[in-house]
Amino acid sequence: MDAVDHVIRNRLDSGVPLVGQVARYIISAGGKRLRPAMLLLVCGALNYREPTRHTLAAVVEFIHTATLLHDDVVDASTLRRGRDTANEVFGNPASVLVGDFLYSRAFQMMVESHNMRVMEVLAEATNVIAEGEVLQLMNMHDASLSEAEYLRVIRSKTAKLFEASARIGALLAEQPPAIEEACATYGQAIGTAFQLIDDVLDYDGASAEMGKNIGDDLREGKATLPLIAAMQRSAESDAAVIRHAIEEGSTEALEQVIAIVARSGALDVARQAAQSEAQRAIDAISVLPPSEYREALIQLGTQLLSRRA
């Protein structure tokens, strides 16, 4: 990861000072670096040690960071990772344009791998993520969203880059299709579990721990699984409170919504869904040869379920 950070710092250089300033601001905020870490762990599990893995790990972090910059503008977010978002500090235009820079820099770097299949995977992932963002936008303030429709969004918007990161590790190691698909399945399942827990924490977390404002999803009119499950399991009067909050994008009834979600058992429903995804990931990765890297990948699946931020 130190080597990946070194690549990130070097490749943020630009002749336009504001580009580097905005990009460094959001990347220096830290974050979990789960996607590049996953790529490196898969490479380790498959005994691939070439420096290309560091470059491509930086590529997936750049793509992820670009989506964060754009997301915060679209969602009008003010807090991420415990501090002001880039759009709060530098304004929306700079955030959007620097996000574009990070996308284009990522594509410059992936070409350096001279691996057409890797470029294909990353290009497809970037396109699917963009589609997922638009799909989520279309679903805003829709209280009738089904669980299947919700899962379609998060598997496009969040899980796709996890899937691509794990798949690239197998591609770099020149593994057969069965191993490649197992790694991809692992990544998709981990990404889905990650987002499910993230959505749980919006109604069962503390903003100080999470580094974002509690209730942001509700303010943005997002019907996430805790809300969908709560509406299904609650009395009509309680379901109506949640429906109104989603449709209006209002946090006025946030405390009431949190209480309804808690007593309905919806958080347990969402956690169980995350548990199922984590187990799917662990089952998929079991085809890899035993190693400390495989154990770390398994541990990642179990630790996601207990995270508080």
From TrEMBL:
Keywords: Magnesium, Metal-binding, Transferase
GO biological process: isoprenoid biosynthetic process
An example Gene Ontology molecular-function term: metal ion binding
EC number, UniProt record: 2.5.1.90
UniProt enzyme class: transferase
Record InterPro entries: Isoprenoid_synthase_dom_sf, Polyprenyl_synt, Polyprenyl_synt_CS
Gene3D superfamilies per the UniProt record, alphabetical: Farnesyl Diphosphate Synthase (1.10.600.10)
Record-annotated membrane-spanning stretches: none
One Pfam family linked to the record: polyprenyl_synt
Catalyzed reaction equations: 5 isopentenyl diphosphate + (2E,6E)-farnesyl diphosphate = all-trans-octaprenyl diphosphate + 5 diphosphate
Cofactor: Mg(2+)
Record's function text: Supplies octaprenyl diphosphate, the precursor for the side chain of the isoprenoid quinones ubiquinone and menaquinone.
UniProt similarity note: Belongs to the FPP/GGPP synthase family.
Identification of the protein by name: Octaprenyl diphosphate synthase
Species, as recorded: Comamonas serinivorans
Lineage, uppermost ranks: Bacteria, Pseudomonadati, Pseudomonadota, Betaproteobacteria, Burkholderiales
